Amino acid sequence: MSDAATPTPTARRTAGASSSPLADAWRRLRRRPDTIAAAVVLVFFGLMAAFPTLFTSTSPRTCPIREARTTPQGWGGEHPLGTDALGCDVLATLVHGIRPSLLLAIVVVGVSLLIGVTLGLLAGYYLGWVDYLVSRAVEVFLVIPLLLAALLVLSLFKGVDLGTGTFNVILLPAVVLILFGWMPYARYVRASTLEAKNLDYVTAARSLGASDLRIMGRHVLPNAIGTVTALLPTSVAGVISAEAVLSFLGIGVRPPATSWGIQIEQGSEWVLGGAPHILLAPLICLVATVLALVVLGDALRDALDPRLAA
Amino acid sequence: MGRYILRRAAQAVGTLLLVMFLLHLLTTVAIQLNGNPAQAFFGDKVATPAQVAAVEQRFNLDDPCYDQVGNPCLGPFVERLGQYAQGDFGTNLRGREVSEIVATAAPNTIRLFCVVLVTWLALGMLLGSAAARWRGSPGDHGIRLTSVLIDAFPVFVLLIVYRYVVAVPLNRWAEDTFGENSWPPYWFKPSFDPDHPWATVVVPGILLGLAGSAAFIRLVRASQLDSYQGDHVRTARSKGLTEGRVVVHHVVRNSSVPVVTAVGLTFAEALGGAVITEGLMNIYGMGGVLWEAVRNDDVGLVLGVVTLLAAVTVVVMIVVDIAYALLDPRIRYE
Amino acid sequence: MRQARITTLAAAAAVVALTVAGCTPNDTVEGDGPVTLETWISQDMETLFPGDAGAYDNISVLDVVYDGLVRYDPETTEPYNYVAESIEPNDDNTVWTIKIKPDLTFQNGEPVDADAFARSWNYTADGDNGLYSNYFFGIIEGYDEMQPTTDDDGNITAEGAADELSGLKVTDDLTLEVTLASPFAGFATMLGYTGFFPIAQECLDDVEKCALEPIGNGPFQVTDWQQSQELTAEKWADYTLDETPSYDAIHWTEYAAGETAGWADFKAGDLDLSFPPTAEVESAKNDPELSERYVEKPGASLTYLGFSGYTEGPWNDIEFRKAISMAIDREGIISSLGSGQATPADSWVVPGGVPGGEAGTCEWCVYDPEAAKAALEKAGGWPDGEKLQISLGDDDAEVEYFTAIGNSIEEVLGIPYELNILPSDDYFSTRSAQGFDGMFRNNWFPDYPLNENYLSFYASGEPGAGHWGWYSEDFETKLDEAAAAPSLDESVALYQEAEAILAEEFPTIPFRWSFSATYYSDRLENVILNPFSGAPILRKIDVTA
């Protein structure tokens, strides 16, 4: 019995199904209001990351200290969400801080997905020693908890100067999160490959003399990818949260570069100091984003695996 | 059965060796990138010559392989394994034995974990069962939403708010209501008190447990949903058993199997959470030690503790596997 | 049924363990137990060896465990003889005769005599032992011979030739004769510093043990130290000197996160002394009940900015340094970030507390955006596309301060900046290695109350040397002159002239003075702050049960 919290990869699709599973899934997705709300939230923050100037004209680096901790003035005011402990505009920081968080999430999930899918596919398809190696590697990386690994790696590599570009700033957290984050994908893909491999049409393709590469790419992978797709939103959410925790520990993105994690960390000081908005603004955004992603992930999973739908 | 356990244990030793090798590789690469091997252990911290010499000797850093980027440095690795085998996990920057530090810190972490475990099981079983039982009801949706919210909320914010906003008034209230020498005021102490280790660890433990409980709630719900659709439940129902009996004997019981497995996996995650909890609540445990070590750039200590914790995790995972095998008759252990 | 039982059992076992452990009644004794002062230190304290204690925390513990030759008056900061009977210099302040009070002992019964001091000083002055307070002894003759030689990378190539200071003589049981390497009128003022405390022979025999279980000669005796958790010191029954404490024990709780950690516990009644985190300073101030239990004192520690004078850059132009200084809104930053914990600095020597300290010696330490812009213009502006690097150690509060400083500079002068946060606040060696490029944080915590202590470290000996690559012949001549002055007053006046030269050449920019403040619980009375460490003088506090 496999881990039941996640959908068991199913080969429910019979050879005679009329439409593709993804189209089915899409139809089911659209019917849920929570999914639509989640999508709207995500599009909103996506826009924010892509076009920050649409949302604020203030620079996050203009921080007159004498205006520190202004309370929120509402839309139309000079500081709609107030200013933080240093006098920087909270809205501007928020809008500009989403980029590193999001970039990190996309890079981490993208790369770990790539590694996980490749290894999982190879292991599940060839079995034997390939499988042995991959399974071992998965086990080894699972043993070291992500946060401990992050602590170790980041303290080991603190002395290595990486520069201050947008990408450089997130490089170290990204490497850690990838290094210790690819295993779930590998496990799921391996499991679904195992199932898909024995399906009739795959056997048929093989007996017709199709190459391994072709079978994997055309027949096995599309079947396996569904499970993993459902994992993606949740994984992105996980990375965004993890970034906040790393920033809190002082080993994530570093100031004056800014991210939601840093804002939350700095704001948490002021909850009692008469300026809760410094914490609340980024916290609400973070929770909203993560929530939206998880809802989307749930919906996606249900859509791809109708058995579990409520 | 005995053979299964043996095989599993042998496998675990292999895993542990590989984990150590992985940690060794990471350290090696860091050293090769950082330049001066011993200095790498101090980051940008300024070390006295004595400290540098100690680190050099400890990790055999005089080995020339540390100057060649890409060289896995197998020689020093073997030597270090020898040291681990003798129970020597190195020292911190000031020369205190890691094993000694861990020995003083571990009991507090274990206390914390007991509380966390109870919280997990209690919340997971209660909410998860309820959600599965009344699947699709508003209650089910509520529980799902709660579990998602718990996941989304950074645990450190929870702890900070508790410590600075909630704890002091609660503590005052408890003192006024129950008297200064009763137990409730101790539950709400804003930080850990070594003289009352259990009482002061309860609330931090519950908070940390709360943070990890979301996974359990979902897990229990999903596995019980599976059970509800299972043949054995249908049979039980058709036999005319009362619904309560069906739920307790055929659904809840079966769902405990994946829960046990998940305890092992989540244990590793909770170790990470302990760093924040212990750091913030001033609990002198393994996490608190790591928290300080990272702040002080004490890589030797971080490395030692992480290695030890990885070993513990491996052991926990075998125990869980064996428990799993005992619990689930479908597992074959040939 | 089996599986259900196992899970239930596990859960039940844990619950039982919790309740059993949690339900025995508490045995805290009220009233007739020992009266204990509850205070805190930070967790990184690792040693209580006098010669190796450089941090605020060790010093505050050692201050009750050991007694020095002199102690300092909390009001005037002037030293008064404590373990010393008398301290007399010769005419040119080169040879000092120290007489020690008779019949004093260590907590293990060994006598506190001239030997006790000599063995401590020789051990600390020996560079091979690598102790923190080593550099203090550079003033005594024979110090150089005790230092190891190092190559360019800082690796030790040979140990120091001598093991004893040739300038330190024990002339009889209770008399020490100290010959200085050069005249210094303020030598007596230095002697109350932890580095000059005596140690017992038993301590020297096992220094490692002594660092954890100190054998002091002060009013309190360390009875238990659970490193990183807590430290307890109890009153030493055989204490004979007059500063006898009025209560029985001190209990320090060690905190990982520093000061802010203690505040919640203070409010919950578990600590007797604490100061709120920045965010809560206002509300504490406005609390009528709390504000009655509050003491404050201007601190003596200076945070200032230095430049890498040894690298090429606009900062080698004094006009540029002026521009930076006048672009920093000290008032604004401090009132927003460090309310009640700092005051803006406009001098290099702390005003008011220390002999020779005067406010306003820094002409360009006022916030004046217009003048700043003009000065930058005069200096030739800032190179396009470059960022000003500001380096500092890893400390949350300081990162916040320096972000604000950077913002202020960027706003006024349009110079973009980046923070180079090094993973430790221990800067000394990176700084000595001249490893920075741009601006960096400096902090000076005075060791003894004399303006000389704030100035002498600017002497670099030759052009391009020193932490800031700054050298001024006039300045160094003035320092020598001041050290050789016949009386302390004349010496202080000459040091003031040296400060004026510093102000003129402006190698560093004063930023803020520390400001010490403490809230105390209603059990305490007579809480006085040490005028220059800012720590409450624990041995003088009165505690009611």
UniProtKB/TrEMBL annotation, chain B:
Domain ABC transmembrane type-1 stretches: 106-324
Transmembrane segments: 12-33, 110-131, 143-165, 198-220, 259-281, 301-327
Stored CDD domains: TM_PBP2
Record's bilayer topology term: Multi-pass membrane protein
InterPro entries the UniProt entry points to: MetI-like, MetI-like_sf
Keywords: Cell membrane, Membrane, Transmembrane, Transmembrane helix, Transport
Locations listed in the record: Cell membrane
Keyword Transferase in record: no
Pfam families, alphabetized: BPD_transp_1 (PF00528)
SUPFAM superfamilies, per the entry: MetI-like
Similarity comment: Belongs to the binding-protein-dependent transport system permease family.
Protein name: ABC transporter permease
